[in-house]
Records
---
Amino acid sequence: MDAAEFRKRGKEMVDYVADYLEKIEKRQVFPDVEPGYLRPLIAQCAPQDPESFEDVFKDIEKIIMPGVTHWHSPYFFAYFPAASSFPALLADMLCGGIGCVGFSWAASPACTELETVMLDWLGKMVNLPEEFLAGKDGKGGGVIQGSASEATLIALLAARTKTIRQVQSEKPELTEAEIMGRLVAYASDQFCATLGTTPCCSFDKLLELGPICNKENIWMHIDAAYAGSAFICPEFRHLLNGVEFADSFNFNPHKWLLVNFDCSAMWVKKRSDLIGAFKLEPLYLQHHHQESGLVTDYRHWQIPLGRRFRSLKLWFVLRMYGVKGLQEHIRKHIRLSHQFEHLVLQDERFEICAKVVLGLVCFRLKGSNELNEALLKSINGAKKIHLVPCHLREKFVLRFAICSRTVESTHIEFAWQHISQLATDLLKTWVQNHHQQ
Ligand SMILES: *Cc1c(COP(=O)(O)O)cnc(C)c1O
């Protein structure tokens, strides 16, 4: 493919994606395929001779789409949202076009500098304490990781190294291995300090945890993967109070801030803690400058060496939506979750299982776990909407997460009527079976 054909095909692909997203509502949200569906549809080996773009393109609808779960369908209410927007898609195209690998400042200065500035923008949007920002000569700063799980691992490794060095300076007779064997990490069954847990979007009390961590010299990492985006709205910012006690903080714009996967934003108060843990400096990667808010070598802030120009997505989205546009998006989702909550509360057969704070509603039929498992099975079997469950204490609970950028009040009404009808059908047979037993 030469540049002339790329121009033509690129436009076709943009049209295809625009059509896909514009008409996604018409597709069944969850596919009909069985495990192993794809292999028989595809050649056993890569082709020896090149194929045409048309050959590949026509297989998208034939082979790929039948096996796609449509995360951006307004009937998708599973997991948590996967962010997507047109500005982010365009930025990702540019990222692919530039195709740099920005592991150090010199490897592509714009890639590094835009990321530092975007993480400062984002940090200011959620009103993070100044110490987390890079500025021109700050000790802190932000970095884009691939996922919240990576951010947690990075925090853990940095905390470990920092603690080992600290103990070594006090007790030089101990070896690293001896110290390592005595380290303790404190966690709940959700792992670290969390704002917006995955099962039910509950919030740890940072104002209680934070002072203890600081007093005991324990690294505090806060995972706000989903909920973090809501903190750009002043009315939800109080949920982040206590972040001033943390050493590191993370949330995923790729969940709820309209920036396509992957974009997990992580901040630290002391960049030296990360660099101390990860710095590797072979000769071919050495440049003569000092780490500061101006010059950052992001390879010391992450596990991989290579990294994409992901901050372009943030830059496009933050500029083209503006803070106000993004706040509107968050507020709309939260309005819709409360709409669903009210519908559930009006039906005496159901109960709400956790406080609805943001865009997630946990609910169930009053009754046994088996009954609720059967309800979920019938909902997901009908494939008109898609949900996933969770366990809250011993209870089997259905999670209804507001996900799609384009979901509206009418979709919520439809989803509720559908669930309610399936519950009616289920309860009829359930009662009959129960009587027969
Ligand atoms: C979604 C989620 C994660 C995982 O996010 P990844 O970016 O996929 O690793 C971690 N923690 C919480 C609280 C989440 O909601």
---
Amino acid sequence: MTSSDGCCQCCFSFIITLGLTALFLWLSLRVDEPKCYVGSFYVPALNKTLNTPNNRTIVFVVELDNGNKDKGIQYDNVSLNFEIFVDANTTRPVGNATIVGFYQGHKKEAKKWGYFDSYGVNRTLVNGKVYFRVNFTTSVKYKILLWYTKRDKLWGGGNVEIDDSGAKTYRKGIRLGASLPIVESGAPKTRGCYCALLGLFLCILFFRFIFA
Ligand SMILES: *[C@@H]1O[C@H](CO)[C@@H](O)[C@H](O)[C@H]1NC(C)=O
Ligand SMILES: *[C@@H]1O[C@H](CO)[C@@H](O)[C@H](O)[C@H]1NC(C)=O
């Protein structure tokens, strides 16, 4: 083996190492935000056959989906805030609820059932229907292997149309907003960085050994 062969091989293994490390980093640090939906929504006060307009209870099911194949999500408390539309552009608050923080494994869906006492609702029609606005805010940490990322703030909202039985009109869940982070996540988190450096080091060791 000439020295130029050795150099070429070294160069080649270096490039492969670099490529694989980049791939490894991209795969391990890339996270998808969880998706939040209103699954069901029921306002007994607006159920025409029930005829109990003074009932203040509102019942809901909120779904939280972790679409990540290999990352868990730790949710802080999820704050829900409910409003009713009084015209096409204006809402009035009707109440709040909290989903207690929890851990969700990868590729898992959580259906969180809850209810709260509203400040009272009237059948206020906007374009012939009653609409509610549901907003959520929470913070999440992603679990990558053994490490947690920094917290990301998430929020979103959506409009829920109510039918004559006081329930959400469509069976399909209503996606709560593009859940944009309020504060940019700043992708490579501190601990993610240590993890990446360790990964790089192990990769180099591994390929030095293979190509030696
Ligand atoms: C509305 O009230 C009627 C009469 O009590 C009941 O049968 C029906 O299930 C209620 N609607 C919903 C969506 O619960
Ligand atoms: C809502 O806002 C739009 C656009 O600003 C306006 O054209 C419309 O008249 C408003 N509707 C009501 C009910 O205030």
